[in-house]
């Protein structure tokens, strides 16, 4: 007994000593000393010959030190408490640069800046050397990044899951006015912020066949003769703001099971020796490979299944390590599907539970529908992913069987509740039999989730009444709304330090974590001195943007002009082309002397077109051709400038949003699910010109009718116009200015060396029906732009409205959004362990 007591005492002493040692290790050196240490011991250089990149890496390692202790403690606390966790599955996480954001969220930015100044460096300059993490394309990925920031800030136990793309989508350059796609090699200088976790690798299987084996338990399916790759996890810490919580973003990279074949190498067949590695690594090489070919489609489905199965395996491994009762799965796990890209997770979870863990189908399905929720991001049926049954049967034969069984049981249920309605069965079936037999991934996500949400009030209502009307009838109450939001840490605190400083001076710094406090600035809209200070901030941000544009494009801008900004993915429904029609209208008015007395205007575009989207790329080319004519016309001078800002990414957005006076949100009503660029620009003091589409509706409600410029057909009016046989020719012949603009595009005014260059754009507007009703909204848009121009001349009135926009943006914090998800969908609370 004495020996046992001594042994326990010894173990206790060892444990306490270990904790003491851990606490010692987690203590941080003064930042100047930490910087010098990392330069010496991590980089292996002295100050006398260190390059700027050496100093960036040194600074990043120093900030990472502060992250690591919190990260480890957060994960240990979640594990020890066996708390419920949220798992956010997204094919994109557009997290941007980490250095400045992490330093700000950790609260060490001032000390870090001072420490760098002591050794002759500047934090701002070093931050510019960091590559944007090329893990996303646009709003979907940036939304996911805002969400993981908010989950950490709000102490929600959460993990994000995605793919560690080697090259991202592409780096956009503009050559001869045209988009050129270049590899975005963001990992060229390594990623200091990630930690490889080889102990958590997963096997991912493709191809093969399914055999059904008779056993004592009945017929069991076995997926055999498969080809396998390895999913290697890389973890990225996501620090919360004003909290000790650091959550995890786990990104999967594809590796070959046998990366090198020595036998082939020794035979002199060097290409064959690494063939397996190259084939495997293709899966995680590029975001959104062009799917215009059969091989491209196969690769995209491979990508989706690759990251989904690795994530589901990881989730279930963690669950089974700490829980013995499968029925507690929904009490411990909440999985959010960000759009349809991860929808195969529904079938994959069934595959794991039924085939690997041998649960009965009914029990497994109850668990699946207890853990999954699905966010829809589009109203356009053509944008909802479908995959051919043939591709599924080749690539994922067992999962096709599972989808068939899910569909069979679902349609049986529907038929019981709505007997004899064969049209309904056809419309809601997961298998589309009318377009060559295809798997409808959105339908799989709806059927397999307990909650489906839209991302703006209008969008969610339209889901219920149009796209998912049948499902709303079958599953009353399943469809709900959670309006999107943005993190004020990235989009105000980091992107706009001057405005943050001004606000903090008057209302304190609490708004950075609790954006509702920003409403306290509203009375200052009536304070003349504050309005002047606000304009000074905007002027400085515009000059910063003008300097960057000069560096990027060579175009010299007058920073006192109205900066009219449209930055988003290039797509017909977002209607950059409508903006171009207005630009040409302004150009014609200036040349004819009809625009006298108006404020100078700079129209700024930015965004990428998908590589296979030819017409979107033509719109980019037209913008640049128009810019070339307008910017070099001596009759125009500084009255109008047009700029296409190349390679739009998060770090570019951080300069573009604060520099905007006018926010262009002009999609056809009923097409944009939400938008978040509208929120970011308003938070940074821009006024919105937009249609009643997506989140514009709610922004209008928040800022007030007098502080936003709304124009154009409403969603019901768009539907009615199409039902009445909308004819764009009526508008073309009925508006002389519009006719002149379209004729200039069509007859080669902006492309004299190739007059027919833009015939396809003219055809889209006139001969192919003008699907997005640009011509119907043109006159209202131009008239509203006249109101914009008139107001801008009254800088006191303009700045008053801009301040009110900033003050009334509280609803659009991603913290509010995550709070609604946590309470109403995930049923999870802030962790207090």
What can you see in these coordinates?
- By secondary structure, the protein is of the alpha/beta class.
- It has three domains: 1-78 and 105-131, no CATH class; 82-96 and 132-484 and 820-826, Rossmann fold (3-Layer(aba) Sandwich); 489-812, Glycogen Phosphorylase B (Rossmann fold, 3-Layer(aba) Sandwich), CATH 3.40.50.2000.
- The protein is 50% helix and 14% strand.
- A hairpin with a 6-residue loop joins strand 9 (227-239) and strand 10 (246-256).
- Helix 30 (728-734) packs across helix 31.
- The two termini are 35 Å apart.
- Mean pLDDT is 93; it is low at 10-22.
Helices and strands, with pairings:
Elements: H1 2-26, H2 31-43, H3 52-81, E1 85-89, H4 99-106, H5 109-118, H6 123-127, H7 139-153, E2 158-163, E3 171-175, E4 178-182, E5 195-196, E6 202-206, E7 209-215, E8 218-224, E9 227-239, E10 246-256, H8 262-266, H9 270-273, H10 275-281, H11 294-322, H12 329-332, E11 333-338, H13 345-356, H14 361-371, E12 372-375, E13 386-388, H15 389-395, H16 397-417, H17 422-428, E14 431-432, E15 438-440, H18 441-448, E16 451-454, H19 457-467, H20 469-474, E17 479-481, H21 488-494, H22 497-507, H23 528-553, E18 562-567, H24 576-591, E19 601-606, H25 614-631, E20 640-645, H26 650-656, E21 662-665, H27 677-683, E22 687-690, H28 696-703, E23 709-710, H29 715-723, H30 728-734, H31 736-746, H32 759-766, H33 774-792, H34 795-807, H35 814-826
Parallel strand pairs: 1-2, 1-11, 2-10, 11-12, 12-16, 16-17, 18-19, 18-21, 19-20, 21-22, 22-23
Antiparallel strand pairs: 3-4, 5-9, 6-9, 7-8, 9-10, 13-15, 14-15
Helix pairs in contact: 2-3, 3-4, 4-21, 7-35, 11-13, 13-14, 13-16, 15-16, 23-34, 24-25, 24-31, 24-33, 30-31
